[in-house]
């Protein structure tokens, strides 16, 4: 006869084991990616060493959980087992980390891909998209109706992580349409393969056959009733939406004012930029540089200035007013 008491306890423990879910949210995970990159760049490294980069002891569960989370987000790949297990940043992690272009669509897509990489995130997004129920309703679903159900002690932390990640990735209802499952299938459609759905006010480029048609992006003024064509400012002709790509809003360039001034900070927020304008009869010369600069960087600039001086001298000597060459 089976031990009913022990069997009940074992069943209870199994029921209380939550599904695999990220240990930290995506924003924190990307900070861990940066910490890894600053120490190891694109190289693979033993998991014990990686744990130290994140401030954990070699055998700390926090280091293992962090690694597991970054793998689930598609930001790390691992190889080997046990003491020989190594970690390395994925291409998606590098794309997010190194793409510092303002309003980069590719980086935004990569972040959304990472947010929906964990299996549990995919399941919740497929069920509710960006319109989540109340926390109490969500908690009931996860602890009672989900298979396997969440542990009562873990569910609140997971709900916060999921909501923080979705907000950080800026996933919205339109992403639910493009990220959702393929019609009639079970395979996720990669974000980069999804058709762009323009909205009024977006700036777009028209690329029939991969050939750019606009000198600069144009604003979408209206859409056809069936959503298959978009109209842009200054044109009465509807453009097929499958030939449009979203672009950043064009920046209007204003005439510079002579003198030194500050310009906008780069995305990293660690440095600021300075700009100096020098007026010449032939035109303006502009120079920008980040501050602060290290002594090595200052020396590199000095060396570069000497090379630049030679280039300018050669270009000036070949102008229309250059002296006749000597025999």
How would you sum up this structure, described in words?
The protein folds into three domains: 149 residues, Orthogonal Bundle (Arc Repressor Mutant, subunit A); 45 residues; 55 residues, no CATH class. The protein is 41% helix and 16% strand. It has eleven helices and eleven strands. The strands form three sheets. It has a five-stranded antiparallel sheet, with no helix packed on it. A three-stranded antiparallel sheet has the order 1-3-2. A three-stranded antiparallel sheet has the order 9-10-11, with no helix packed on it. A hairpin with an 8-residue loop joins strand 9 and strand 10. Helix 3 crosses helix 4, helix 5 crosses helix 6 and helix 8 packs across helix 9.
Q: Calculate Rg over CA atoms.
A: 27 Å
Q: Note the total helix count.
A: 11
Helix content: 40-55%
| Secondary structure tally: strands | 11
The low-confidence runs, each spanning 5 or more residues with pLDDT under 50, are: 1-8, 11-15, 177-195, 264-268, 322-327
Strand order, biggest sheet? 7-6-5-4-8
């Amino acid at each position: 006869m089976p031990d009913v008491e022990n069997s009940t306890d074992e069943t209870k423990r199994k029921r209380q084991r939550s599904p695999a879910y990220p240990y930290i949210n995506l924003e924190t995970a990307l900070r861990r990616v940066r910490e890894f990159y600053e120490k190891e760049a694109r190289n693979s490294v033993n998991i014990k060493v990686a744990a130290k980069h994140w401030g954990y002891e070699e055998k700390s569960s926090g280091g293992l959980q962090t690694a597991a989370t970054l793998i689930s987000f598609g930001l790390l790949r691992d190889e080997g087992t046990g003491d020989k297990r190594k970690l390395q940043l994925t291409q998606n992690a590098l794309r997010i980390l190194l793409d510092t272009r303002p309003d980069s669509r590719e980086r935004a897509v990569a972040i959304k891909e990472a947010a929906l990489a964990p299996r549990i995130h995919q399941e919740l997004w497929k069920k509710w998209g960006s319109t989540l129920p109340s926390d109490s309703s969500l908690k009931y679903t996860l602890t009672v109706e989900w298979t396997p159900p969440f542990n009562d002690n873990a569910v609140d932390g997971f709900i916060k992580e999921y909501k923080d990640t979705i907000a950080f990735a800026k996933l919205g209802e339109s992403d639910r349409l493009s990220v959702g499952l393929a019609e009639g299938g079970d395979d996720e459609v990669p974000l980069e393969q999804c058709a762009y759905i323009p909205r009024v006010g977006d700036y777009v480029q028209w690329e029939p056959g991969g050939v750019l048609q606009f000198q600069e992006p144009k604003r979408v003024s209206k859409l056809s009733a069936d959503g298959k064509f978009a109209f842009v400012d200054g044109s009465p002709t509807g453009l097929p939406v499958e030939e449009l790509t979203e672009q950043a809003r064009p920046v209007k360039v204003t005439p510079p004012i002579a003198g030194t001034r500050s310009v906008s900070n780069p995305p990293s927020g660690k440095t600021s930029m300075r700009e100096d304008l020098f007026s010449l009869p032939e035109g303006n010369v502009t120079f920008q540089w980040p501050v602060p600069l290290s002594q090595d960087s200052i020396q590199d600039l000095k060396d570069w200035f000497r090379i630049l001086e030679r280039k300018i001298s050669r270009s000036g000597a070949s102008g229309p007013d250059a002296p006749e060459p000597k025999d």
